[in-house]
User: Fold these one by one.
Assistant:
Number 1:
Amino acid sequence: MAPDSPVERAAVVARLRAAGCVWAEDEARLLVEAATGPEMLAGLVDRRVAGEPLEYLLGWAEFCGERIVVEPGVFVPRARTALLVTAAAAVTGPAAAVVELCCGTGALTRALARRLVAPRLLAAVDLDPAAVSCARRNLADLAVPVFAGDLFDPLPVAWRGNLDLVVANAPYVPTGELTLLPAESRRYEAPVALDGGSNGLAVLRRIAVAALSWLAPGGHLVVEVGAVQVDELRAVLTEIGLVAEVIRDEALDATAMTARRPTGVAGRRPSGMAGRRREN
Ligand code: GLN
């Protein structure tokens, strides 16, 4: 039987539904599309029924209207993270120098490349080699470099003090709450993409501390965070000397924080990166 026959499709829907897939019809359609034959389809459905995330089976996830390549273990872009694109676009002027940290698939950078006005520099960074290779695939056609390393460490030192936007969907789940994540996330995504330390803010704090010197005066750090962590993160950002604002989107169930480097704070002025600096 052809994998796209109605009978086969109905059988897939029934198996997915029995396994608890809420969007069984949609998933069945996508798996049927992805399979090149009945055996492959049966294999994909078996894996899905066993709990593997749909995105790993398809090899892609949709983010901001584009198909993003997702490789095994790499954090699957979430719909809620679209808020970071809107929030970043709202605070970032034309010709910006933009770095995405903890980039995972690089989905955010792809969306920012389309949304921002003529960014003069785009780059992405991740610690996890699997994420770096996945992001390189997603960003190859945009010629965006993907650096391997910890946060700002692998970036050219000449960029220090000159970035207009640093954006990150960093890990922010408190270590003790990792076990509460959905099984798809807990069992299949790299813990390094999720684990934010004891209060969930360990990585965000390190990003914020370093951002103070990597951002240009007036530049912004834009991050995602859990709704219940907002007050604690605001306190961290404020203590560091950044000017924090919260953006909440109920429809997306998403919370973002923007943190501006004040113009008055002295940063190290790099010599190697001539060009426009936003001074607002
Ligand atoms: N579970 C969170 C989410 O799905 C994890 C995000 C994160 O740590 N960056 O959005």
Number 2:
Amino acid sequence: MTDTVLVLNAGSSSLKYQLIEPDSGKSLADGTIEQIGEPSSSVADHGAALQAAFEALSADGIDLKTCGLVAVGHRVVHGGAVFYRPTVIDDAVIARLKHLSMLAPLHNPPALDGIDVARRMLPDVPHVAVFDTAFFHDMPAAAATYAIDRELAQKWHIRRYGFHGTSHRYVSEQAAEFLGLRWDRANQIVLHLGNGASASAIAGGRPVDTSMGLTPLEGLVMGTRSGDIDPGIIGYLCREADMSIEDTEVMLNRHSGLLGLAGERDFRALRQRIESGDSTAQLAYDVFIHRLRKYVGGYLAILGRTDVISFTAGVGENAAAVRLDALRGLQGLGIEIDEDRNAQPANGARRISTDDSSVAVLVVPTNEELAIARDCLIAIEA
Ligand code: ADP
């Protein structure tokens, strides 16, 4: 029987699951349980969510006891400095992960809930944690270090960790394969633009910079997160607007970005408003594009020579206007988008640059679940 891996991605109010054959890359079933713990919802907690996922799988004719399940893979956002390889979970790992929740209070606790419940419900297979920070673990110190008091940073483990690493690695591998380049020789920029958004510069398979930092708040403008701001804004609001630290964190993580600027976090809806002449939506879009171009320019300079720029995730894969606006007018830097290719919707990896563009520009669908499933096999075979 072919091996399968169940991949779980537990957020604060949602649980995404997918059953995958890592060898073929085939997805056998997937789904999302939403509104976990919300007052109007029938799903009280992560235990109930996982139960609902099992029921949905069994309605699809899948029995986890007889489907060749060899591992359960858990997406964990923050691995801190400790975890940078796919890690088979035991009680000692759980204890260290709990400690790391301090670095990622919004993201790690729901994943821990998911792990706890899944280990109890599926006790006979190994559970593996795969970390969003892992790929960036060896980023050069110049890119990973904040210019703040050195001892304070060391004591509190403050560095730039980077996130979406599973996606940046997977997409860069796919891009190299698509172009017939060796991953460990290619210089790449990956733009992961979803609800969360991040950019990375990868030189010869090694990330040399990424836009997210200690937390997934730094960098690009996102659906609800501000990305880069002057850190002075936080002290100013605490002092003058009588906001608490928690207030500012909620504001920057949940009420900023496109939502804060235009009252709309969904890119499709934002585009519709722009098309009907809404200037507030237009400004939100312009801020988003301006920031993105700043990162692209910065990464071109860091890499020196760039072979390929890839767009991925919900916005990157689907919003042709964003891709064009992000790279418009850069012929002088060897980047030329073919507007017809860019406008063609298609599945799978594809080129959207002209044949003359010296930097290839691609759209590459990400598949974090498949990458996690394959990482699980590596962990359990190790
Ligand atoms: P997440 O970070 O939650 O995984 P996704 O990668 O699914 O996010 O991206 C979600 C974003 O992608 C939303 O803003 C959504 O509007 C946008 N999106 C999805 N499809 C399209 C489309 N066809 N055109 C423009 N934006 C799209």
